[in-house]
């Protein structure tokens, strides 16, 4: 089993830190490059949504991102103490086919999770959102 734990603050500048650690994890374990691109895209979008929409205060919060490879499956767990939000319940509908100027804000991260990941699960426990994503490598 190969794993990595990333703890970041709820500030958008942490994206560079997250991307660097993801790349290092991929290189260390010789994982497929395409899966790095897709995983980075999903994690970046979800992290951005947590930072911009998840908190009602200006306090510092910590977001945990755990990566684990078991056999040929990548498991990503993103955990935060933001407001309760299950992204898997939200329907994207036809927003992504509309012209950009006609789209409502939101939905891209959910679309990416549903199309680039093989399985996703959400749990709210002890005041924390826990989103677990599975990707076959």
What does this structure look like?
The chain has 137 residues and is an alpha+beta fold. It has one domain (2-136): Heat Shock Protein 90 (2-Layer Sandwich). The chain has three helices and five strands; from the N terminus they run E-H-H-E-E-H-E-E. A five-stranded antiparallel beta sheet has the order 1-2-3-5-4, covered by helices on one side. A hairpin with a 2-residue loop joins strand 2 (62-70) and strand 3. The mean pLDDT is 89.
Overall structural class, as computed from helix and strand content, comes to alpha+beta
Order of helices and strands: EHHEEHEE
Going by CATH, the homologous superfamily would be Histidine kinase-like ATPase, C-terminal domain
CATH architectural arrangement: 2-Layer Sandwich
- Given this structure, which CATH class is correct? Alpha Beta
Instruction: Write down the overall mean pLDDT.
Output: 89
Q: Indicate the low-confidence ranges by residue numbers.
A: none
Q: Describe the largest sheet.
A: 5 strands, antiparallel
Number of helices, where a helix is a run of at least 4 consecutive DSSP H or I residues: 3
Q: Strand order within the widest sheet?
A: 1-2-3-5-4
């Amino acid at each position: 089993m190969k794993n990595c734990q990333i703890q970041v603050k709820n500030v958008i500048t942490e994206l560079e830190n997250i991307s660097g650690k993801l790349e290092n994890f991929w290189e260390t374990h010789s994982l497929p490059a395409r899966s790095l691109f897709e995983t980075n895209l999903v994690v970046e979008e979800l992290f951005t949504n947590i930072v911009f929409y998840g908190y009602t205060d200006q306090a510092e919060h910590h977001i945990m991102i755990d990566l684990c490879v078991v056999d040929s499956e990548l498991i990503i767990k993103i955990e935060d103490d933001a407001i309760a939000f299950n992204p898997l319940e939200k329907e994207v509908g036809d927003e992504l086919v509309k012209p950009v100027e006609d789209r409502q804000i939101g939905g891209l991260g959910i679309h990416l999770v549903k199309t680039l990941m093989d399985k996703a699960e959400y749990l709210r426990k002890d005041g924390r959102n826990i989103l677990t994503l599975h990707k076959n490598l």
